[in-house]
Amino acid sequence: MKRDPLVKLAGVHIARSTFLVGAACAAMGLLAPAAMAQPKPIRIGMPTAMQLQVGRDTQDAARMAIEDINAKGGVLGRKLELVVADETENPETGISAIKKLTADEKVDVLIGGYTSGVTLAQLPHISAAKTIYLNVGSASPATNAKVKTDYDNYKYIFRVGPINAAHQAREMTGFISGFVKGELGLGKVAIVGENAKWVQDLVPLLKKGATEAGADIRTVEFFDAQTSDFSPLFSKVKESGAQYLVVILSHASSDIFAKQWADARFPMPYGGIDVKSMDGDFCDRIGAKSVGAIAGNFAVRAPLTAKTIPFFDEFRKRTNRSPVYTAFGSYDAVYIYADAVKRANSTDPNAVIKELEKTDHVGVPGTIQFDDTHDVKPGSTGNKGPSLLFAQWRDGCKREVVYPKAVKTADFAYPSWIKK
Amino acid sequence: MLEILIVGAVSSAIYAMLAVGFTLIFGVARVLNLAHGSFYALGAYGAYFFTAHLKWPLLPAALAAIVVVALFGVFVERVLVRPMRSSQLAVLMITLAVALVVEQAMFLTFGSEYRNVPAFVDAKFHIGGVDVAGARLLALGVGAVVIGALWLFIQHTRLGSAILAISQDPQAAQYMGIPSDRIFSVVMALSAALAALAGILAGPFLTVQPTMWLLPIVKAFAIVVVGGLGSIPGSILAALMLGYAETIVGYTISTSWTEIVSVAATLLMLVFRPAGIFGRRAAF
Lengths: 420, 284
Description:
Chain A is an alpha/beta fold. Chain A has helices spanning about 15-35, 55-70, 90-105, 115-130, 140-150, 150-155, 165-185, 195-210, 230-240, 255-265, 280-285, 310-320, 325-345, 350-355, and strands spanning about 5-10, 10-15, 40-50, 80-85, 110, 130-135, 155-160, 190-195, 215-225, 245-250, 270-275, 295, 360, 365-370, 390-395, 400-405.
């Protein structure tokens, strides 16, 4: 019998075959963890106002998209992972949220946002962290202005939704000229808006556009977001001789405004941009006092794209809520980022930004494309992008789209106490 | 003009209900109760809970909410405030903590969404060419009646006399055999019940959400500083002044400026007359 040659190891002679088997096992043992370990996940940081419905919907919609993408194997073989930080509605807390996500959590991308004032305060910190930021909540055009003027430092900023305040003003102008003046025949208009950054950006544009379109703007009034009594405001609007009240409301005031409008049987219909009135439960929670009022929505459950109705149904199934606008943006933003990473074959921000700029994504409210300030292009530019859909609350707290004509589901109905 | 008169009166009535309770507990027990706005919020949330979740009719729901909040007020006074009453700073801290805990409890229980308290009266009234919501007129009427009743109670009942005696000289009142601890509990219950009633009456035309305690406490604070801490007539007068000042600013200048009125009034009063209009001594 042929003896196995011996190998001398650390002064001990062992059989060569034993040595080879042992060496192979040792090599496999060393290599196995590296070969079998999960690749590092791609981390999505989410700064949002966690205690508000807009914040909860931002998270839930992102989780929906992340679960779907991960179920199909993730992106470049890496799973997506969500890290949330509460930015509240306070700029200082918003800055802390960005610092926590970028410096401590070292996320690859930021998806979130709600209040423009907070987003604006966060911008220098996002730029310093060189992290891509997909805004899904705030509407001030100022958040994207620096992308054009200081591209190298602010190229990281994108807005997936909603369409910015300037575009909203244009669509609102269309609503006043085409619907209020055109369809309802009410040419005398009052504009009221709360004192918020995006409203201050929007109102002058709206006034100019509506005047050019032939509307007679009788009065423009701002009020504090803490206002609890709208009687003086209603009185001024009534005295102005206006026939229709255009509102720009966000944050806290919508509920009180609608209640006091209905309680006083204010002799004038109202409509416009009313952020809280986009909530699915708005009408029910204020005791149906908004019946007759119109609010612009960034999406409603209608076949706007192939994704709109399935998204609304799936979101309701998972959360038992109707989604608000930040949900559409958040859901689309996760897909848009994932697609850009796939195309770039990397998570390197510079490579991903180049791909994000080429985005042509069929999303929930429309096709998402970015302009040269990395801002979502609105549908009015002819690209099937997101648009404002003006829906009226009707009896039973149902919603009907009354404008634009192309997607109209019903004619406008005056509130019960107003005679046409 | 008539519109300013009516709208100002409604605001004043709500403010007076808030401020009278706030000043009462200070006048009697020397407790600066920062949880007073929470009683207002809990009143509104209580009415919402009993009507929306338990499906009770509004009147029993409102009464139940007032009783629950009054009992909560007694609990706060007996368990949290009483052991610390010797230190004004400790009382401030503990009542602020109560307010924050109540706010977070509302967040956790009901979420951040706005809630609705149904109105007792849904009709609109036309008075001298002015349209006024029924819920507002009711707030005005109930506010006036309740404050009037409180005044009569304090001036003409045995318990009221005891409250008055303690507010004038706590030590002498104790020597006369008035059980001060029991009186403090009664006053805290009254104070909490008044704030809860204000929340229930204002809920239908305002909104119900967890941070709703903050603005009322700011207003109540402004009113008692202007009126004089511990003075009920001072609070009623200051509530009327603030209610009308805000309304006049809203009508003649802009609604944007109304919220600065109370802050400016507090500041000016503290600088020029720290004791307030009817205060017996400087509050701070």
